[in-house]
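pls design
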């Protein structure tokens, strides 16, 4: 058993200060998690001297002594870190935040404060912790979005009709091939073919995405027609999506205002019913890779969400989608039955939403990437420092037309998808120290799915079960079963 003076670890409501004096003792040994590090805590007695509010805001230190530190594969990190290495960082991390568990104290460490991210050693530790290759320095307030945009080669913004229609040809050919393979594949190969089909279908979305940003063709009518047609098989109304997506770019990582996903606001979470909380735990946990289905259903079919001046164009998009459903779906069912509808349309559609959800989630979600309210939001920090470059398998990037090269797209939406890599190379050369980048991996996904849930002003995110006596069965199970490899 252990006795804990909780005031030693509890933040004050004034912004991160601690109590006047505190201590805690642990008899026997217990396990804790510190920034994902598995700690074996022997019998120790540790004192924490009180400090002023200003000092605590500057250091937010984890004061420790006599701790034997070992890394466990169960934690988000898979290699060993010595006690000396952790102690060298002790003045750079937030204090432990304890969670009571049936098995004892389960402690987690909050993300470091923005000023601490200026330290390259802190960024390196967090990059390994979260599954990143690099966590960028905080973007200075002196850097503007125009500064970054002006540094890009002019060629990045040039529309090339041949390259644009080549993207269409690649997508149409790959999607047609996937449907042929579905018709010929034995049942045990269908999951692989559906994965290919869903990825090819995502190419349709990316082409429509370029059309919506006016980076596909110099003819705007052509863009509207191509965008609408590409979105039809996805049952995605083009114009409603375009309107809401423009707001995402204007207010990226702005709390509440961003129409893409953002953390659950704590005040709302506390008011939710148990069924709603359970729904969110599943939706932002194991089902998060398909959460765009909910976003699609909620945002894009309700005329009331659009201004009167927008509604006529919205109605055209809705008519196109409903027309596809009324004509193509019955044809599939007549020819192949309901099972055929599942095989040829539903499963590829679910594959598309897997990528839609995963791309969106990875592009802007990590424990160190903050959401800001309107008064604290900064455009350059959100678009350059709050957007993630993620490398996916090459076949995914080819079929999805480099949508994963996302930072330049948030610098300027006028860059066509086929020029994103050129723009990214320029950003790497001129602004590379601010770039967040990773390769898609299990540790990255585990971090997002198990930790990035509820908005916290000081720590950016806390998990749904933070502060609870028992670990969430849904999120806790994910922590146990998801691989930790990067």
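designed seq:
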């Amino acid at each position: 058993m252990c006795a804990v003076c909780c005031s030693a670890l509890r933040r004050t409501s004034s912004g991160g200060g601690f109590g006047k004096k505190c201590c805690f003792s642990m008899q026997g040994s217990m396990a804790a998690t510190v920034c994902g590090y598995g700690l074996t805590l022997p019998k120790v007695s540790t004192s924490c001297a009180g400090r002023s509010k200003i000092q605590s805001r500057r250091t937010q230190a984890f004061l420790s002594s006599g701790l034997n530190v070992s890394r466990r594969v169960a934690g988000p990190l898979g290699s060993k870190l010595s006690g000396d290495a952790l102690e060298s960082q002790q003045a750079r991390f937030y204090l432990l935040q304890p969670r009571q568990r049936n098995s004892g104290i389960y402690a987690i460490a909050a993300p470091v404060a923005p000023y601490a991210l200026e330290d390259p050693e802190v960024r390196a530790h967090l990059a390994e912790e979260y599954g990143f290759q690099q966590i960028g320095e905080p973007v200075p307030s002196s850097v503007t979005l125009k500064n970054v945009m002006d540094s890009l080669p002019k060629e990045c913004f040039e529309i090339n009709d041949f390259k644009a229609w080549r993207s269409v040809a690649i997508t149409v050919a790959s999607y047609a091939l996937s449907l042929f393979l579905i018709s010929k594949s034995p049942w045990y190969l269908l999951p692989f073919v559906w994965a290919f089909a869903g990825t090819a279908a995502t190419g349709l979305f990316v082409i429509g995405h370029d059309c919506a940003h006016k980076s596909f063709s110099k003819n705007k009518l052509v863009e509207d027609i191509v965008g609408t047609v590409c979105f039809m098989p996805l049952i995605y109304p083009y114009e409603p999506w375009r309107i809401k997506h423009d707001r995402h770019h204007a207010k990226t990582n702005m709390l509440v205002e961003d129409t893409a996903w953002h953390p659950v606001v704590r005040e709302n979470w506390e008011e939710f019913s148990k069924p709603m909380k359970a729904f969110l735990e599943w939706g932002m946990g194991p089902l998060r890779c398909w959460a765009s289905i909910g976003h699609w259903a909620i945002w894009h079919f309700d005329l009331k969400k659009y201004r009167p001046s927008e509604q006529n164009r919205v109605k055209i998009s809705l008519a196109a989608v409903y027309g596809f459903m009324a004509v193509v779906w019955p044809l599939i069912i007549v020819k192949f039955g309901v099972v055929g509808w599942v095989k040829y349309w539903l499963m590829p559609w679910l594959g598309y939403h897997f990528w839609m959800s995963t791309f969106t989630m990875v592009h802007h979600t990590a424990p160190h990437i903050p959401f800001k309210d309107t008064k604290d939001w900064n455009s350059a920090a959100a678009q350059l420092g709050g957007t993630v470059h993620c490398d996916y398998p090459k076949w995914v990037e080819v079929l999805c037309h480099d949508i994963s090269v996302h930072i330049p797209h948030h610098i300027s939406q006028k860059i066509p998808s086929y020029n994103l890599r050129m723009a990214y190379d320029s950003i790497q050369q001129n602004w590379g120290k601010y770039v967040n980048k990773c390769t898609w991996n299990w540790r990255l996904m585990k971090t997002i799915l198990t930790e990035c849930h509820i908005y916290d002003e000081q720590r950016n995110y806390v998990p749904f079960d933070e502060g609870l006596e028992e670990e969430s069965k849904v999120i806790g199970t994910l922590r146990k079963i998801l691989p930790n490899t990067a």
